[in-house]
Design brief:
The chain is α/β, with parallel strands linked by helices. Helix content is about 40%, strand content about 15%. The strands form three sheets. A six-stranded parallel beta sheet has the order 2-1-3-4-5-11, sandwiched between helices. The chain has a four-stranded parallel beta sheet with strand order 7-6-8-9, sandwiched between helices. The protein starts with 9 loop residues before the first helix and ends in a 10-residue tail after the last strand.
Length: about 350
Amino acid sequence: MSSNNRPPTIADVAQRAGVSIATVSRVLNDKTYVAAFTAGHVRDAIAELDYRPRAAARTLASRKTNTIGLLLPEISGAFFQPLLRGVEASAGDAGYDLQIHTTRNPYLHNNFRRPLGEHNTDGLLVFTDSLDAKELIRLHSIGFPVVLLHQSPPQFIQMPVVTIENQSGAQKIVDHLIEIHNRRRIVFLLGQDSHEDSLWREKGYRVALKSHAIRFDPSLVAPGGFNRDQAKETILQILLDGLEFDAIFTGDDDAATGVLEALHHAGMRVPQDIAVVGFDDAPFSRYLTPPLTTIRAPTEEVGRTAISQLLKLIHGEKYDPITLLPTELVIRSSCGCQGE
């Protein structure tokens, strides 16, 4: 028995034998050649620790589908295209097929229906708002490989997370509005309530205001939903309410298209009257009128990195608990600069 009176794990066996977790797995499954000397050390460690692999984990280890699953809430807007490109290319390079399922349907409220999981994939990539905590905990309990995209794991559960530097990116773009263009009444449009990206971007917005001694005004924070139509309606309502502002951080680039449409409808000039900035650097951003100042997010790299981390889990190798990919400020003319 290992320390703290908990049952020994495969990691304990690997440490005792001085080998990798993958080597222990190969010895347990007896399907891949392991040198007799090394296998002997592993079996000795198993006996010394009285390690007994869970039946579910043994079953999972021996059932290979050569398929990776990707769960998304939906496939819409420009954001998901580079993500899918990165996931598909990296999975293919590794010799895996890819199955994709969208969950913005009764699936979220119907836990017994599992289109993707341990029965038909070797591991899952799970985008934020695609699988509830109960199911994530269940998958973790049976040792099934899962990597989370743009969301944290349930409390007390360790799963690798791949995301981007949302807070620092948001802070950079709001700093730019304040320092270069002297904008001080900056509207911020929130994304969906369940999206951590939105929470971190709001934190960056608040940090930028505080660092320039600008009082946070909650009336300047409004729902945008990372959605063109919702952002448009929100800005039209803000204008109707007579709220004074001189810039808008739209939350993401899809919302920026709705914001620009609303301002144009109201006869306001961008950037002369209102500066507008976004986040993501979607392919269409440079072609808006005016071209959009935004934060370039490495969305395709998120997909590639997530596959890399999932393969480490599948092969029993050490993975990174969290990967934060850097973002970059892209200057165009919607903020008031000459730009690209």
